[in-house]
Amino acid sequence: MMIKTLLSFVFSGIIAISFSAHSKTKVTWSMESNADRDPIFLEKLQNAYNSAQNNYELEIQFEPNETRIESLRTSMLAGMGPDIVETPGPSYVKEYQEAGMLENLDSYAAEFGWKDKLIPWAYSSGVFDGSLYAIPKTHESMVMLYNKTLFEENGWKVPTTLEELEDVAGKIQAKGMDVYTYGSSGWQPTHEHLVGIYLNNYAGPQAVYEAIIGEREWTDPVFVEALELLKKHMVDEGWWSGSLENYYAIGWDDFHAQFATRGAAMMTIGTWTFQATSLGIGASGDEWGWAPLPSLSSQSDGPNFMIAIGTTMSINAAAKNKDGAIDVLNWIMSNKDVVIDIASDFEFGEFVVPLLLDESDIPSSISPQVTSYLNEYARITGDGNYGYCTWTFWPAEPGVHIWKDMEVVWAGDISVEDFMHDHQKMWDKARKKNETLPVPLRD
Amino acid sequence: MNFFSNKSFIAWYFVLPVVFIHLFVIGIPSILSLALCLTDWSGLGKINYVGFENFIELFDDRYFKKAIFHNILWTIIFLTVPVCIALMCAYLLTGIKRGQMFYRLAFFFPYMLASVINCQIWKYLFHPIHGLGGFFESIGIQALASSPFTTKETSLYAAAFVDGWHFWGFLVVIYLTGMYQVDNHLYEAADIEGATKFQKFRYITLPMIRPIFIFSLMIIIIWSVPVFDYVYILTGGGPAYSSEVVANYLYTHAFVRFNVGYASAVGTLMFVYVIIIVSIFGILRKLGWEI
């Protein structure tokens, strides 16, 4: 009798435990796949969240972006899709928001005080038609990396102006190296990184801002001159990977290898590269450094950092578990330590949720270059010296035009003036169709 | 007897499942696509009717015209280079008694490989750092310093070369099949008459394999319209639209630029073109041409 009673208690316990385990409702998140990053997201995001509470079971589904963007669109159209919708940037959010496929997050933002937790410009990047629809999963900027050891050996000065840049470029080429290593093989939109740099650092962020909000035309001579200068450096001088043809032929692994093996002295790239750069050049024995991109004219006075959103997080309007999805987002924004821990694993190149951080929040485990970048970025952008990355502030069609058709300019098939004329027409069309994206007000 | 249990309907029952699948996978999406060409649909959200605006814009689109021109060039290249090489090789192979299977396999092998593998092989071969260019540079020779896939003047021809390289083995096999069906007595008679190898090819082989030959031309013309994979993987249509083809242009508008309505208009024109080609062949057949 005793044994029977004992067994019934044991079974009841097992049933109760398994019921509570299975009673957790599932929250799905379709995330961009990356072999190095996936295990960290599984351990430090999915498993950590699941252990931290008993109501929801987060399930991250990884898929490469090449196919994920399309499969996400198809499933959303069918009224399905994951609970948490991850997109590659605000132009995608706009498409989904316009289609009524995303949940309005205003009430949650007010309830959980999200606005006070996020960097103001990053918060406003998710506000469409006056309401919040997306939270940045990562924010980023463009920087200039250089081989510090090589620069010291040759007594080269890190350039801060166009004159200094052209001077050091000549010296680098005289040594038989490429000025910059970079390439678009495997990711054609790489061109927009360079276009953005020249627009912001030649014409200046103020002029770019005015064009974005429609107070200045893209055909303005200052933008034409900016892209003429880019064409000169790219096509005539062959600054990137030696020639335009090689720039087209070189991909991510190639240009990191070139940088690590002194094939080139510098690299123009986004901050998402920090981890790869540390690993790559670290193995070669050389030391790397970073610097803000040089000012390319007097219109762009002083260093600035272009602001950008890498990926965004939203809630599917047709989510099966909306409450769970909100809970996941709120958990991320309420746990600064989790974000910092994951971001540190990527050297602050990924999962840099734009939470308001102090200098003391930056862990000592990350490389000194990244620490100094984070401090400088906060200081300079905090002073209002920030520019605008094309993939965050350009509507869909002009956003594609700026990189896809730039090749036509570089090929000499059309003039920069004609290109900018076409570009302006696309902006006019996007403005007419209310397709422009949120842009933070400038002081 | 019931009309539907008539013997002549039995074949219909067997093909019905395939018809249903085709209707579901191709028919319905095609009809929807035809309807979308009159809208400005982005792929999500509201669908607005815009009439023939997409077509008007298309006829004024310089890159679309460029893509059409490249498709025509592509068709001409494929109607000549692989066809000539395949005809010649197939004819020569008929004269090989030992080891013929080795050649047939060797020629056909690239056709069995996935396009992405073929493309990666050639991309690596012409890579400026790791490919032949890098190798030549290491031994002091300046050759192939730039990849033909990333050079504006050569990108289309380079992509066509790789696609042709994979395709011509297929033509060899079908021509060879046709040549084996030619009655050997015709060649024996020609030998008695003292005909040369070329004369036998010109006056016996070519006329006798005409149905297969014309069929091969027809599939080349049709397949050249939706050519996509080799261009997409090798060049992405670039640089600067120098290798842009219509299918890749459609893909870019539908999946990169969020212009599904415009992409559907491109697809509709492709559809019309294929219908015209098939109709021409159908009419010629009705006129008694042996094709």
Q: Describe it for me?
A:
The complex is a heterodimer of chains A (443) and B (291). Chain A is an alpha/beta fold. Chain A has two domains: 25-140 and 308-379, Periplasmic binding protein-like II (D-Maltodextrin-Binding Protein, domain 2, 3-Layer(aba) Sandwich); 142-306 and 385-432, 3-Layer(aba) Sandwich (D-Maltodextrin-Binding Protein, domain 2), CATH 3.40.190. Chain A is built from 22 helices and twelve strands. In chain A, strands 1, 2, 3, 6, 11 and 12 form a six-stranded mixed sheet that branches. In chain A, strands 8-9-7-10 form a four-stranded mixed sheet. In chain A, strand 1 (25-32), helix 2 (38-52) and strand 2 (56-63) form a beta-alpha-beta unit. By secondary structure, chain B is mainly α. Chain B has one domain (10-286): MetI-like fold (Orthogonal Bundle). The longest helix of chain B has 33 residues, at 62-94. The mean pLDDT of chain B is 91. Classes of the chains: A alpha/beta (443), B mainly alpha (291). The interface between A and B is medium-sized, with 34 and 29 residues.
Any chance you could write out the topology, listing elements then pairs?
The complex is a heterodimer of chains A (443) and B (291).
Chain A: H1 2-22, E1 25-32, H2 38-52, E2 56-63, H3 65-77, E3 84-87, H4 90-98, H5 106-112, H6 114-117, H7 120-124, E4 127-128, E5 131-132, E6 135-140, E7 142-147, H8 148-154, H9 162-174, E8 178-180, H10 190-203, H11 205-212, H12 221-236, H13 244-249, H14 252-260, E9 264-270, H15 274-284, E10 288-291, E11 305-315, H16 322-334, H17 336-345, H18 368-382, E12 386-388, H19 390-393, H20 396-404, H21 406-410, H22 416-432
Helix pairs in contact in A: 2-17, 10-11, 10-12, 10-20, 14-15, 20-22
Chain B: H1 10-36, H2 53-59, H3 62-94, H4 100-112, H5 115-125, H6 132-138, H7 155-180, H8 184-193, H9 197-208, H10 210-223, H11 229-234, H12 246-255, H13 260-286
Helix pairs in contact in B: 1-13, 3-7, 3-10, 4-7, 12-13
